[in-house]
Amino acid sequence: MRAVVQKAAFSNVVVEGEQKAQIDRGLMVLLAVKKGDSQQEAEYIVDKIINLRIFEDEDGKMNRSLLDVEGELLMVSQFTLYGDVRKGRRPGFSDAEEPDAALKLFNYAVDYARAKVIKVETGVFGANMMVRIDNEGPCTILLDSEKNF
What we know:
alpha/beta, six-stranded mixed β-sheet, globular
């Protein structure tokens, strides 16, 4: 799995003019499922996300996690994180999981997060979404369950 994690002062998802999800202070996560990913990868990536020490402590140091600050989490599925543009200019998505299997694992990751985080919201899987991210810092972290970065 791959994730783009952004520390957010606010984030929301709108589909066809209707707001579907919103968080205030917390993390906005774009999450992609790779072919062959399992619950093990989902648990790894969620644990990494919610325990990232990217929130400031009383001394202004990035030393607190989402759990420490009781922040909110917005997770949005985004298969394009597996877009491969090494050849040519049109991305290839052959590493991205098929939609049915990706949805199942994405939902597992969301449920796993909900067991640990006070508020977890999601986008609408497969929909054309408008995602607003008020990135605080800015602070953006890339994660990969294969530890490529």
